[in-house]
Amino acid sequence: MTVVDESNTSIAADRGDALLRVDQLQKYFPITGNGLLRRRIGDVRAVEDISFDVVPGETLGIVGESGCGKSTAGRTIMRLLEPTGGRIEFDGRDITKLSRRELVPLRREMQMIFQDPYSSLNPRHTVGTIISAPFKVQGVKPARGVQAEVQDLMARVGLNPEHFNRYPNEFSGGQRQRIGIARAIALRPKLIVCDEPVSALDVSIQAQVVNLLEDLQDEFQLAYIFIAHDLSVVRHISDRVAVMYLGRIMELAESDKIYKAPLHPYTHALTSAVPLPDPRAERKRERIILTGDLPSPINPPSGCVFRTRCPKAQQRCTDEIPLLREFSPGHYGACHFPEERKLV
Amino acid sequence: MSQPFLDVKELRVQFPTEDGIVNAVDGVSFSVQKNETLAIVGESGSGKSVTAQAVMGLINRKSATITGEVFLDGEELVSASKEQVRSLRGKRMAMIFQDPLSSLHPFYSIGRQLVEAIKVHQDISKAKALGISRDMLDRVGIPNPERRLKDYPHNLSGGMRQRVMIAMALLNDPELLIADEPTTALDVTVQAQIIELLRGLQKEFGTAIVLITHDLGVVADMADQVVVMYGGRVVENAGIEDIYYRPEMPYTWGLLGSVPRMDVGRHERLEPIPGQPPSLIRLPKGCVFRPRCPYHELVPGNRCDDERPDLVPTSASHAVRCHLEPAQRREIAAERLGSPAMEET
Ligand SMILES: Nc1ncnc2c1ncn2[C@@H]1O[C@H](COP(=O)(O)OP(=O)(O)OP(=O)(O)O)[C@@H](O)[C@H]1O
Ligand SMILES: Nc1ncnc2c1ncn2[C@@H]1O[C@H](COP(=O)(O)OP(=O)(O)OP(=O)(O)O)[C@@H](O)[C@H]1O
Ligand code: SF4
Ligand code: SF4
Ligand SMILES: [Mg+2]
Ligand SMILES: [Mg+2]
Questions:
Q1: Structural domain B6-228, CATH architecture
Q2: pTM of the prediction?
Q3: Distance of CA A44 to CAs A29, A32, A70, A325, Å?
Q4: Which of A99, A161, A201, B11 is 20 to 30 A (C-alpha) from A181?
Q5: Which residues crowd ion ligand 5, with CB under 5 Å?
Q6: Chain A residue closest to B271 (CA)?
Q7: ipTM for the whole predicted complex goes beyond 0.85
Q8: Which structural domains are found in chain A, ordered by start?
Q9: A74 lines ligand 1 (CB under 6 A)
């Protein structure tokens, strides 16, 4: 393999036994014309050159605004979408090009939880059937029988085990999310990609589910990729956070650093825009208000994709793509003119 | 204090349904002054939107029973005629809705919709109304307003649509603006723009704002006064500082304990409220929060089960609906919130 960009690959190199390595991953969605031949006339560049790794038992958060490519990244890593370029390695094995059949055993190790607890559960199946589906697909026969195992799982995620014969519409949003979680942990995976798992829930229920995810992580040594647009939730649950903008990673650091010492102007603007639930602190804060709209991922700006809205943009930002570099141990940023370190 | 611009007293909205009567709003009272922002917070289904719609006279009286009083600058609206309320709506009071797409007409241009909204209340030429519309789009920070007038809602980003909604609400210089989750569907950077915009408008025109949201960060940023709703009732009503630093109702404690904060050690565990919000059809006989309240045992004699607590003032600007003794409540709050929140107080 030729190393295209040394600074990028070093992210995956440093941290020893990664469970997942993502290297210069790309995912484009072709746009076809209306003509008879449906020729490809362009691409939605949903994910453009992202690299990171995840070690066992760790939570990596991915944040960014709507349309920045978070879900596409998650689905591509899960191989629910075909990558356009780059490489995905799971447990030391290249899974970028595995066939659908070769992927089946991998699903024991990697699972996904979705945002919408309503549409991700089949309304015609009982909760028992839904939670036990992974056993069936994988041909796994739990020692004490499927029903006992399902009821154990239900109890573990805080559902009443007696309710295994009920249908999803008999459960509230928070309970449905618990059903999705029970299904995801059924085979004791090593990694769960959680795509906005609490975004549709009320705050009090959201906190219940966040605590449950944390407990399950401790109990089963799970690694999470936790995707959400709510920076407070992501920071709370994640060990490290990747900030995405227009398909690219702008900054990647320990979650406390993202808030306290962001080095990328976009991260800075994003964190300053999140209001704190504390009126005195909130009213003392300085807010960076971004102007303009998000550019289209079909035709992203040249150079730095954030330059059309960046208060610090200069000529070099138009001419040259800033690569993701390590500025201090474990703290990566993609910017030509990073912020001065300032504690907020 | 002068007479409040909006004064809501014992507002009740009941919807008869096949399953029984939904007590969506169950005796809600609050008031707002000019130049002041009152936030209504609470979880999904607690009756926030129905309260707003009832104030605006937007609930079909055939489908619901509405009682209580709503005074807008001294004028009572619940018993007023439809025509009377309609003449005030869009003029003296206006609303920004939860979902901008559902409240903008998809087939009409932005310009046409704005012009019509003006002409309901003002007898002016189309050219003049278009001019006012363009200026208003400009005021709410929409670039190229002239061109935007010809656009349709689907041509605009979510943030732009929300600005158009705000522009429409402001066309006739309303004195009261009710904003129902104005930023919930938006990204935080856009939310910051919209909050800035609302704040600027209030400063300029002295608008009274009722802000409905479940985001305690947005409330901390914008509100002067806060109403906490649960199960269709107001469970706590206080000034912004009291709500965050001296809250006295177990539900409010639960809400504050549930939100992760960006500025505290991230390893602090969240303290969620157990259980789920109540059904509004079969409300508990005593306190609505009883099934989820960890403190009911501290109240002697099963009162939390049997007796509905009243909203009782604990100071001139703070009222609480809970059977716990005030001293007990303060002690628990201090313990739950820890010292940082109580310092300087
Ligand atoms: N199947 C698809 N075909 C074409 N374009 C797509 C497809 N899926 C996603 N996109 C586009 O790719 C970009 C990234 O979308 P994605 O859903 O990954 O964003 P996101 O960060 O998850 O956003 P959100 O916060 O709204 O969920 C968007 O511009 C989106 O419109
Ligand atoms: N037209 C109606 N007929 C019957 N029930 C209704 C009607 N409108 C609202 N409700 C019920 O009234 C209750 C309060 O609804 P409301 O929309 O005010 O909640 P909310 O606090 O605004 O919630 P959210 O945060 O989800 O917007 C809900 O249980 C809702 O189902
Ligand atoms: S590279 Fe330039 S435009 Fe991009 S974030 Fe840094 S300063 Fe801003
Ligand atoms: S009245 Fe009783 S149940 Fe209700 S909040 Fe107070 S202590 Fe809890
Ligand atoms: Mg998404
Ligand atoms: Mg609502």
A1: 3-Layer(aba) Sandwich (3.40)
A2: 0.91
A3: 5, 11, 14, 25
A4: A99
A5: A 71
A6: A207
A7: yes
A8: 15-109+189-281 (3.40.50.300)
A9: no
